[in-house]
Amino acid sequence: MTNNVDDISKFKRFVKSLGRLRKSFRLKLSLGFVLVTLIISIAMILVAFFFFNNRIINENANRARMVATILADSIDGDSVDRYLDTLEKDEEFEQIKDLIRIMVRKPGVVYISVARFTNGGAYYLFDSDDNEETVCDLGHFHDWTEDTD
């Protein structure tokens, strides 16, 4: 009879340990599920961030190309030479300057300048900067060889 009681108590302990094991397995399974979900979520956030970042960069580049194309179509190459030779502003010059002011108000456009580049620097024709101290007026030469520090 004691043998049966021992067997029953052993069986109860065995069932109890199975219950703990089952609870432990459920806990591990739940934690594993949460961990996998977290890893997938982080991966999706990173992919979305890089996709969005590249898309914004491409949109800004396209906007810059569009503005540059419009301005390039509006400026006559012969008049550029005339402006740099004479440094005189005429009605066409003012119209182009007004167009540049309009373009700077477009979303994403911060600054526009038009210059003729040479080996040592650039001669400015148009500049959208309104600050008197930093504006590059018609004919201003910016020497690239001088130290800008």
What would you say this structure looks like, in words?
This protein has 149 residues and is mainly alpha-helical. It folds into 2 domains: 1-74; 77-149, no CATH class. It is 65% helix and 10% strand. It has 3 helices and 3 strands; from the N terminus they run αααβββ. It has helices spanning 2-74, 77-86, 91-104; strands spanning 113-117, 121-127, 141-143. The protein has a 3-stranded antiparallel β-sheet with strand order 1-2-3. β1 and β2 (121-127) form a beta hairpin. The protein is rod-shaped.
Write the layout of secondary structure elements.
Elements: H1 2-74, H2 77-86, H3 91-104, E1 113-117, E2 121-127, E3 141-143
Antiparallel strand pairs: 1-2, 2-3
What descriptive keywords fit this protein?
3 helices; 149 residues; 65% helix; single chain; mainly alpha
Shape: rod-shaped
Structural class: mainly alpha
Can you tell me the number of structural domains?
2
- Counted beta strands: 3
Instruction: Give Rg in angstroms.
Output: 36 Å
Can you tell me the residue ranges where pLDDT is under 50 for at least 5 consecutive residues? none
Ends: how far apart? 99 Å
